[in-house]
Write a structure and sequence with these properties.
Order of helices and strands: EHHEEEEHEEEH
Shape: elongated
Helix content: 25-40%
Length: 167
Amino acid sequence: MNDTYVECLVERKPNPFSILIKGGMIALCAVCLILSFAIPFMLIIGVIIGVLAGYFVFPMLSIEYEYLYLDKEISIDKIMSKQKRKKELVLDLIKMELLAPASSHEFDSYLNRNVQIKDYSSGMEGEGHKPYYLAYHDEKTEMLVKLEPNEEMLKAIKLVAPRKVLS
């Protein structure tokens, strides 16, 4: 077998409101704990809020994306709090129309048509962060996928579709 395998991990930039959400949930639990001395039932409410925050809210505040390239397919997984993994998207590169830097004017026609955009990039700009758009079209959907592939992944994709990859 002569399959190419490349993986790339991109950490999502923390949302500015995530610190406020974390602080608010912790403050709410602390207030319930303090009020539990006067009203014993508040301790139960504080514990319930803390458990719900720890299980549902906090994992959604730390997100990473993993791109896996294997045999002409890119699989994008969302990793929450370095614990839970969810498969977000699988792209067949045969149906890819174009892969180019997000700053390229090649995508103006897509953006003017209000094509669905899915963002799986870090959300950061500047040194070390070069987002790319991948134009994808299959029977059901037409979309732009925003990624941050590493050089090794770009080379692997370019081997499969050299005319569709712009650097």
